Structures are given as structure tokens and as C-alpha cells.
Amino acid sequence: MPTIRIRKMTMNDLEQVLKLEIASFAKPWTKDIFYNEIQRNQFATYYVLETEKKIIGYCGLWMIIDEAQITNIAIYPAYRGKKFGQMLFQYVLNQAKIQGANKLSLEVRVSNEAAKSMYKKFGLVPGGMRKNYYTDNNEDAIVMWVEL
User: Fold this and answer.
1) Per-position DSSP letters for 10-33, written without gaps between them
2) Which among 15, 107, 113, 134 is annotated as catalytic?
3) I need a surface site. Which of 34, 77, 89, 146 has the fewest CB within 10 A?
4) Which residues form the N-acetyltransferase domain (predicted)?
5) Contacts (Cβ under 8 Å, ≥6 apart) of 82
6) Contact 45, 10 (CB under 8 A)
7) pTM for the structure as a whole
8) Which of 119, 133, 134, 139 is catalytic?
9) Active-site residue flag, 147
10) Could you give the CA distance from residue 71 to residue 61 in angstroms, rounded to a whole number?
11) Residue range 54-113, pLDDT digits in tens
């Protein structure tokens, strides 16, 4: 069984994370966006999930006072459906709790049944809708949240 490790993302991870981003999203974040999140955003912490020194997933967390917001989460397509997303999400949820979060929220595409199903396993429930949220196709986002 390969070793799985979750740790904070560093600037040295950007090359691998950008490849993962391109493999995962129609409108991937740029290097500049990640740079700003890691270096300049005092509310943001990003985590990577790696196996055998290869980053196969990442997740972003914003902590503002006692509220946590998941900015994004991605797992390489070849590793999806193998519980890596759940492992990473559980870890980040625990980090939010450790940092004093009372509630956690995120946005998810209306069409993303796999993600919605996973979030429900962690107790997240729909709390609203953001119309035309995703700029690649104007798809709506469901806001989901959970009391921690």
C-alpha cells in the first residue's frame, strides 16, 4: 500500500498543482491566483494530498473568524472514486475545527452529483443557490454548509 500524506501546500508544489488543476477544471486557476492565495491571503491555507511524492489532490480553506469556506477541492481523475477526496475533505474539515470554525460552507455545481453526495456524508446541507456562478458555462452553484 503506497504511503498517503496530507500537508500544507507550498510554493514548491505549484507546478504539480497546476497540472492537477488543468486536469480537473474547465477554467483552471492560474499560477498567479495560487501565488496570491498562498503568499498574500492571510485567511487562506491550502493542503495537498500526495502519494509517493506525487500530488494527487488539493483543497483550499479560508478561515474568517469562526467560519470556514472551502474554496476548491480537486483529485486527479485517475484517483477519483477511491476515497481520496473523502480523506482530504475530512482532514481539511478537522483543520477548520482546530482553527475554531463553527460552520463550514462551500459552493458546488448543480450537476456535480459525486461531490454533492460526498458532502452530504459529512453532514453538509443545501443552504442556497448562486445563479450563473461558474463562468465556463454559467452553471448555478448550490451553497452547502454544516454546523461544526
Assistant:
1) -GGGHHHHHHHHHHH-SSPPPHHH
2) 107
3) 77
4) 4-148
5) none
6) no
7) 0.95
8) 119
9) no
10) 6
11) 999 999 999 999 999 999 999 999 999 999 999 999 999 999 999 999 999 999 999 999
2 has pLDDT over 80: no
**Three-state DSSP class for residue 118:** helix
State how beta strands 103-109 and 67-75 pair: parallel
Residue 103, Ramachandran bin (φ over 0: left; ψ between -120 and 50: alpha; else beta): beta
Rg of the chain taking only CA atoms, in angstroms: 15
Superfamily of domain 4-147: Gcn5-related N-acetyltransferase (GNAT) (3.40.630.30)
For the chain, what percent of residues have pLDDT higher than 90? 97
Is residue 107 annotated as a catalytic residue, yes or no?
A: yes
Written as nine digits, the cell of 113 is 452529483
